[in-house]
Every structure is written in structure tokens, then in C-alpha cells.
């Protein structure tokens, strides 16, 4: 049962749990072949979160700025395809939230160690903001911060657990958001890691 948390944003607690064994198998395999890397900010700092990608487009950061690239900057190789289990999960979650026919061409994989965080930001590197973003939380819990269209808007905290999915569309697609410093609560599947998948239509 979807829980509306803002205009167009729906929380689907535990939605990914039934496919988690299969999902974790393909994800662990992917991370072994395409290790998550800490990208550079435009200011030349390292992000605390490490990232990897799947699909036609992968999100990358560098001192040249942020954006989508068809190649892994570490290897210059194309990203691997999004596995069927993940493609089907993101399409089903989007539909559950009222967004029919969502087909991701990018899956960003954010890997958080204890102490990692993500500052308040907007996602605006995608071409079409009418397309939702589907996020899947795996492993250690985290507190998600959710604001409004202005950076100064008040934020609400959402405790995201292993297996939760949130679909962000409509007005919420442009809202500022971030993740508080992740605390060390070892998880049976991932150990001291939180992994967040965001399925996007980048182009
Ligand atoms: C709300 N990731 O990768 S996912 C990101 O947990 C990002 O790793 C966070 O923000 C994470 O850009 C949050 C939830 C999320 C993703 C995209 C959104 C929330 C969003 C886009 C618009 C509004
Ligand atoms: Fe974001």
C-alpha cells in the first residue's frame, strides 16, 4: 500500500523484499565487476558516497561537473545492461505509485559506509522531469531528508529501511533532498553498507 509523502511522491514500505534474494545476487556480482567509486565534486572534493551505474547512461561527477555518461570513467567501458529483475521491479513500483510505462535507461548505485551522507540537492541532470525516479533502499537503515522546491524550505525526515521503495514524481520530482550521516548498524545481507538504487529515465 503506497503512502503519499509529498505531492507525487509515494513510499512503498518493503516493496522490494520479495525479490531481494535475486536482486542482491545480481547487485553483488555487479559491484565486484564495476566497483563503486567516490566521484569528484566540481569543487574538487571527493563525495562521501561511492557510486556505480547500470544501463545506457551512468551518472558521473568530476571537476568538469555532473552528468550522464555512456562509459564508466574508471574503465572507459560501457555500463552493463540493467538486469531484468531490476527493470521489472522499477516498472512495477512506478505503476503502483500511478506512473504507468516507466522504463529506466539508467540505474545509479549509491554505496554508503558508516559516516557517509548526501547533502541537500535537486536531481536536475535528466532530460524529462515528467518522468519519475524510483529509489530502492538496501542494507543499513538511513534517515532521508525531504524538503521543497527551495533549499531553505523545511525538511521532513523519513526512516528508510531495507527493502523500501520510494517513487518520486510530479511536483516532488524537483524537491531538495538528502541523506543524514549513516550510522553503523550492520545488516545481515550487506554488512556495514547501505546501498541505494535510483532508477531513472536520463535521456
Ligand atoms: C526526491 N540518492 O542519488 S534516493 C541521488 O539515498 C539521491 O542515495 C539518495 O538523492 C540516496 O540523487 C536518495 C531518493 C531520491 C532520489 C531522487 C529524488 C529522492 C528524490 C529526486 C527528486 C526528489
Ligand atoms: Fe538525489
| β-strand number | 14
**Uncertain runs with pLDDT below 50, 5 residues or more?**
none
Give the strand order of the largest sheet, numbering strands 1, 2, ... along the chain.
1-2-12-9-14-7-4-3
Biggest sheet: strands, sense, closure?
8 strands, antiparallel
The computed structural class is: mainly beta
Distance between the termini: 30 Å
Q: How much helical structure, as a percent, in the residues?
A: 10-25%
What is the beta-strand fraction?
A: 35-45%
The CATH class designation is Mainly Beta
Determine the number of helices (DSSP H or I, runs of at least 4 residues): 2
Mean pLDDT across all amino acids: 97
What does the overall shape look like? globular
The bound ligands are: N-(carboxycarbonyl)-S-(naphthalen-2-ylmethyl)-L-cysteine, fe (iii) ion
Could you please say which CATH topology applies here?
Jelly Rolls
If classified by CATH, what would the architecture be? Answer: Sandwich
- How many structural domains does the protein architecture include? 1
CATH evolutionary superfamily: Alpha-ketoglutarate-dependent dioxygenase AlkB-like
Protein name: DNA oxidative demethylase AlkB
GO molecular function, one term: oxidative RNA demethylase activity
Enzyme class: oxidoreductase
Binding site for substrate: 59, 66-68, 125, 151
Amino acid at each position: 500500500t503506497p503512502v503519499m509523502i509529498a505531492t507525487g511522491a509515494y513510499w512503498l514500505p518493503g516493496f522490494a523484499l520479495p525479490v531481494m534474494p535475486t536482486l542482491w545476487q545480481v547487485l553483488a556480482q555487479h559491484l565486484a565487476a564495476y566497483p563503486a567509486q567516490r566521484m569528484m565534486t566540481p569543487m574538487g572534493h571527493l563525495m562521501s558516497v561511492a557510486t556505480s551505474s547500470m544501463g545506457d547512461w551512468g551518472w558521473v561527477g568530476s571537476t568538469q561537473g555532473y552528468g550522464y555518461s555512456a562509459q564508466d570513467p574508471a574503465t572507459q567501458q560501457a555500463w552493463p545492461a540493467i538486469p531484468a529483475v531490476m527493470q521489472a521491479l522499477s516498472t512495477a513500483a512506478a505503476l503502483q505509485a500511478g506512473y504507468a510505462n516507466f522504463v529506466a535507461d539508467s540505474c545509479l548505485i549509491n554505496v554508503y559506509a558508516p559516516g557517509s551522507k548526501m547533502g541537500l540537492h535537486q536531481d536536475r541532470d535528466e532530460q524529462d522531469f515528467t518522468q519519475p525516479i524510483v529509489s530502492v533502499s538496501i542494507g543499513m537503515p538511513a534517515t532521508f531528508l525531504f524538503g521543497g522546491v527551495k533549499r531553505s524550505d523545511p525538511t521532513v525526515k523519513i526512516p528508510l529501511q531495507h527493502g523500501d521503495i520510494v517513487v518520486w514524481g510530479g511536483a516532488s520530482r524537483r524537491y531538495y533532498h538528502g541523506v543524514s550521516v549513516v550510522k553503523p548498524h550492520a545488516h545481515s545481507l550487506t554488512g556495514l553498507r547501505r546501498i541505494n538504487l535510483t532508477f531513472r529515465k536520463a535521456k
